[in-house]
Amino acid sequence: MATNPHTSPVAHPETEIELHGLWRVVVLNDPVNLMSYVVMVFRKVFGFDDETARKHMMEVHEQGRSVVWTGLREKAEAYMFTLHQWHLNAIIEPDEASHGS
To answer: Residues in the chain with pLDDT < 50?
Structure first.
């Protein structure tokens, strides 16, 4: 499809993902929070059912980390900030599959 260099492009969600890629919200293990507390936070913040929340909590506990959400950077940063408010150790990182090499 040809584009006119004199018109400004219209933003589309697909373009947004292509330009900025997807980001992962990763919760890291810590020695402070109880497993039941982490499950409760996952349920409240992400709306996970009990089984999904427990699965992510066990990944954090056993593997040291769990990817709990993937999407655009702005929302990923908001989730990370929210998890910090709940005193969970969370980071964001680029989803390598969406960022290319």
So the answer is: 1, 3, 7-8
Instruction: Please report which helix (H) or strand (E) contains residue 26, including its range.
Output: strand 23-28
In the block, which residue shows the tokens 């950077």? 73
* Contact in structure between 29 and 89 (CB atoms under 8 Å): yes
50-79: per-residue pLDDT in tens? Answer: 999 999 999 999 999 999 999 999 999 999
pLDDT score of 53: 98
Stated pTM of the model: 0.78
* Alpha-carbon span 52 to 93, nearest angstrom: 21
Distances (CA, A) of 4 to 7, 9, 11, 19, 85: 6, 9, 15, 20, 47
Q: Check if the beta carbon of residue 94 is closer than 8 Å to that of residue 23.
A: yes
Domains annotated for the chain, with CATH where assigned, are 14-96 (3.30.1390.10)
Give the integer Cα–Cα distance in Å for 23 and 77.
9
